[in-house]
Amino acid sequence: MIEKGRLRIIGERFKRHPAYKYLLLEKVFSIVFTFTINLLLFPLRYLFLGKIRFGSSISISVSCRNLKSIYIGNRVRINKGVVLWAGYRGGIYIGDFSQLNPYTTIYGDVKIGRYVMIAPHVMLAGGGHGFDDISKPMMLQPSTNKGGIVIEDDVWIGANCTVVDGVVIGKGAIIAAGSVVVGNVASYDIVAGVPAKRIRSRLA
User: Fold this and answer.
1) Rounded to an integer, what distance in angstroms lies between the CA atom of residue 118 and that of residue 30?
2) What pLDDT sits at residue 74?
3) pTM for the whole thing?
4) Would you tell me which CATH number, out of the four given (3.40.50.720, 2.60.40.10, 3.30.565.10, 2.160.10.10), belongs to the domain 57-201?
5) For range 18-26, the mean pLDDT
6) Residue 66's CB: how many other CB atoms inside 10 A?
7) Cα–Cα nearest to 194, from 171, 175, 178
8) Dmax over Cα atoms in the chain, in whole Å?
């Protein structure tokens, strides 16, 4: 352990260093600049989002489209890199106390209940692209919609999962990491795999 006297000597030598003033000014400027930017952007992230309840925590790096069709409930946590691209039918609804972890993408029409946990890098595709007309590029064909995605309360979706359009995930279900969900999941079921299959029920 370094003695107090030794620390004082080191501090005095550092103060005599030619770059001391510049390092100190740089540190002060960095703190002031960061505080000012956060102070300005904090209210703006609420102003330009759609229907958002106060008490939610939303990273300023969230990417949004069609803001009027996005509803964010009370005390929702949305982390950095999340993409919210709402559809023009039902939009995106995120219920109270739910959490979206980094780099999750929600596209189309998706309804998420309360107390839902969504791990990083999850894809919720509540819509798709038409591909029936081979004379046209797929990106120029009309979008498709099978009713969007419904995720009921208290669901846990593991990292790197994909959920496709038309799926309903029942209350209390668990989706194992890396799964691709192409069909409905019953309440309190645990599913895993590609495509996701039932492992067991939490009620058993």
Assistant:
1) 34
2) 87
3) 0.72
4) 2.160.10.10
5) 62
6) 14
7) 178
8) 82
